Amino acid sequence: MQAFFRLMCFVAAVSLVAGCSSTPPPKKVVPPAVVIEAPAPPARFTIHVWNAVGQLLVRMDGVTYETRAQKLGLYAVEYRGEKFLILTKALLLSSEIKSLTTEVRGALPTGKTSSSAPARELLDLLQARLPAELIRIASEKKRPPAKKKQAPTKKTTKTSAHR
Q1: Interatomic CA distance for residues 109 and 4, integer angstroms
Q2: Which domain range does residue 86 map to?
Q3: The pLDDT value given to residue 89
Q4: Could you tell me if residue 148 is inside a domain?
Q5: Angle, helix 51-59 to helix 117-142, in steps of 10 degrees
């Protein structure tokens, strides 16, 4: 029995020591860095005169101008094999917007903003060319309308009968 008592004391001592010992803190597992690419910026910009957009689209090389609803600010175009819409919308004056301004954006046929490369490229071209177009439009407005040359009138002479 004494051997059994010693064995029990030994087991109790080992259990106490094992129970009192601290375990090392778990290693912090750092998840791998997740790189999320930022979505392409939406194709859009702002300008002060909206009607110049349609005039430029009609004359631009590589742009198939399909249809428009100019009063709605909607132009359906095809550029680089992709069909999309160019939408213009007047922005309200605010603390950031001090003058009359129009937003121009590319949109999918569903109306959602397009971030496609052709839409961004066409809007970049529009944005680059619009200042010169605005100057051209302004100069046409300042010029008086061309006077039509009148055809020379025939002078008729009355023949008088002298007797």
Answers
A1: 88
A2: 44-142
A3: 86
A4: no
A5: 110
